[in-house]
Amino acid sequence: MRVLFDQATPVPLRHDLEGHEVRTAAQQGWSTFKNGELLSAAEAAGFDLLLTTDKNMRYQQNLAGRKIAVVVRGQQQWPKLRPHVQRIAEAVNAATPGSYIEVVIPPEMGRSEVREHDPELEM
């Protein structure tokens, strides 16, 4: 699976996504793109999944009909994210075309949770 990290995704996370081709928005030259532009560019470039911290994306963007999956991590700081990388990897592995999955990471060291959403039902 081709995975795109947005600007806020810690690059060390790529090591936990074995078997996936990972690129960053900066590597693609898309560091200034807003969500809609980033989703469209990623989809056009053949990315299968966008990994982001933007929890509002499903409210700000029409995800229905998109081929690209979106996984939202609830934390962008690597030290707080690191204990939950397995949950993020599981969410990436479970993603299907057009899916939206939110990995909820509590502010303090706690149990993370995964929530799946169907963009077709949220129109």
Explain this structure.
The protein has 123 residues and is an alpha/beta fold. 26% of the residues lie in helices and 22% in strands. The chain has one domain. A 6-stranded mixed β-sheet has the order 2-1-3-4-5-6, sandwiched between helices. The radius of gyration is 13 Å and the shape is globular.
Task: Using brief descriptors, characterize the structure shown.
123 residues; alpha/beta; six-stranded mixed beta sheet; 5 helices
Number of domains: 1
Give the helix/strand class: alpha/beta
* Low-confidence region ranges: none
User: What would you call the shape?
Assistant: globular
Topology order in helix (H) and strand (E) letters: EEHHEHEHHEE
Rg calculated over all Cα atoms = 13 Å
Q: Helix count, per DSSP?
A: 5
- Total number of strands: 6
- Mean model confidence by pLDDT: 85
State the major sheet: 6 strands, mixed
Strand order of the largest sheet: 2-1-3-4-5-6
How big a fraction of the residues is strand? 15-25%
Helix content: 25-40%
Summarize the structure.
The chain is an alpha/beta fold.
SSE order and pairing:
Layout: E1 2-5, E2 21-24, H1 25-28, H2 35-44, E3 49-52, H3 57-60, E4 69-73, H4 78-81, H5 85-94, E5 100-104, E6 113-117
Parallel strand pairs: 1-2, 1-3, 3-4, 4-5
Antiparallel strand pairs: 5-6
